[in-house]
Amino acid sequence: MSGKKKNNAITAVPFYRQSFGGDEYREIKDTIQSGWVTTGKKTKMLEEAIAGYLGSKYTIATNSCTSAMHLLLSASGIKAGDEVVTTPYTFASTSEAILYTGAKPVYVDIDYETLNLTPEATAQKIGRKTRALLPVHIAGFPLDMTSFSKLARSKKVKLFDDAAHAIGTSYKGKKIGSIGDGSAFSFYATKNLTTGEGGMVSTQNKRFAEKIRLLSLHGMSKGAWKRYSAGGSWRYDISELGYKYNMSDLVASLGLAQFKKFDSFQKKRTTAAARYIDNLSNFDAIKLPTVPNIASGSTHAWHLFLMRLRLDRLKIDRDQFIEEIKKYNIGISVHFIPLFYQSYYATRFKLTPKQFPNADLAFQEVITLPLYPDIKRAEIDYVCDAVGQICKKYRR
Ligand SMILES: Cc1ncc(COP(=O)(O)O)c(C=O)c1O
Known about the structure:
Radius of gyration: 22 Å
CATH superfamily of the largest domain: Type I PLP-dependent aspartate aminotransferase-like (Major domain)
Number of helices: 13
Helix content: 25-40%
Largest sheet: 7 strands, mixed
Bound molecules: pyridoxal-5'-phosphate
Strand content: 5-15%
């Protein structure tokens, strides 16, 4: 994927472009040449690097964020008959992880401005059967972790966060992943840090971390991953029903190479988001994403740039706006189609848009614009010019 250029003028902008180069090839080659491609040294190195970055005590690499969330919930004993309070404004993974344990997801409407759950609305849905909260830091905008932590403590439930978008997000000077009972990150292809497919659990509780590690590899006794190496033993015990959720060294190699550049990736994302905000603030039919209070030590990871339409000022709806943007060869997406519009969830949990007016309205307004470390300034300007022209053409 690459933006097409003609006579130096931008004529297309892809939705996503990877930042891979020599570092990635070298690290992966090194792993292949080592002869050890499954979970091992490189996975451990990635876990340690990210734990250090987050200021977290324990990290466990997994094959996805979905599995990382499932591990958090199952390792804390959540099971059929229990409830987990969560958001419908997310990818299905958040609910899948809950459903895999047999527990029931209980949905709360989001805050219309931030698109995140609020502790106040969440508190309304906590009942006798609630065992955990599983909110999402949408797009990389931090949840109010102080109030969520207080709420979880007062209701004696666990606070887990879906941090799929939030590697790089800070909340009041602390990195997301170092607050609460456990966080789950995604290293999916388009995430801020990628291993192609992958994820990670972060927690501050040693026993909980040990249990998660055990469950992540078939419930096999400690060190079983080394059983084929010279220093390992063929003998192992399976003490629990576990899962096949471990990360391989091959995958971790890509993450290690990407991680070396992570700070610079985040700076570039922040600069790109600022340029979008600056350009788009000229158009009164556009609503900009909420930014956190930097002075309080909170930051946005800018995983996604969620532009919103002021539909009362436009003669076209979001879907028509997207058709117009496509004419400029701009790759866009929509985050998210809420779960009450997904037939499986709507049917099984009798969800309707009316139950979630904020999520429904936000969904009607949102368009995700291209945002990645290597997006060029001229590409951002091209996207914003296109948005401005469409706004002008269809202004009410
Ligand atoms: C909010 C959210 N949670 C979880 C996931 C799942 O991540 P993974 O693909 O690593 O399982 C995604 C993926 O896009 C996501 O957007």
